[in-house]
Amino acid sequence: MDGLTHASDRRAGIGKAAVPANGGIHLNSRIVIDDEFLSCRSSVRRFRRGEVIAGAGVLVDTFARVQSGVVSASTMLPDGREFIVEIIPKSGLIGELEVLRRQALSLEYRAGSNCELHFFEGRLLRDMYASDPSFREKVFSRALARISELELRIIANAASSLQSRLASTLLRLSAVYGKDAANSGDELIISQNDLAATLPASREKVNQCLRRLRESKIIDGGQGKIRILNRKALEACANAVSVK
Length: 244
Prior knowledge:
The chain has 8 helices and 13 strands. By secondary structure, the chain is an alpha+beta fold. Helix 3 crosses helix 4 and helix 5 crosses helix 8.
């Protein structure tokens, strides 16, 4: 289906058919598969920044590939705050592990920027998984790598100051945006609310840290955009090294 989806379709989940179900929160490991699905039949949908692509707790039998833009995957913390677990770049997949496991989505997916997604039937993924040993190996290796990355982030967050965590997050997002050839990775399109939810931290404290980075001429920008001016200084800040 070309064009924007209707609000009711977006809330229901990925694809036309969706059956609400209760699913626990788990590490939603990302499989980034280069070109396996590009020649397969798909439907194309476009979303504006901030629109919900799929809601948590929904059982679906389609998965999506990010063709352009970025998508955020989030959950709610016990205190009611949103936590953005991951920002999915171009070529990343959404809902692939849930389709393989026949489980409900555990995260909510929103358009982090204006984006285009290609949607595929779940049986395509299950058939490839069942018939292609190299594909199964890729699924496992990508999932393990993603879990390892999330574990390292959790450990780093526990031991670092907010300023250091913010700098590390900006560098990580820079690598995500840099996956798109149209973006050098130096300009990040992200609201302060989303940036606070990614850390997670309060918007007020994040604003204070951003202001210090601007005053040091390390970053610049506003209105939902952050531009990295001094990458070396940002890396030093992420490593809690004092720079002049």
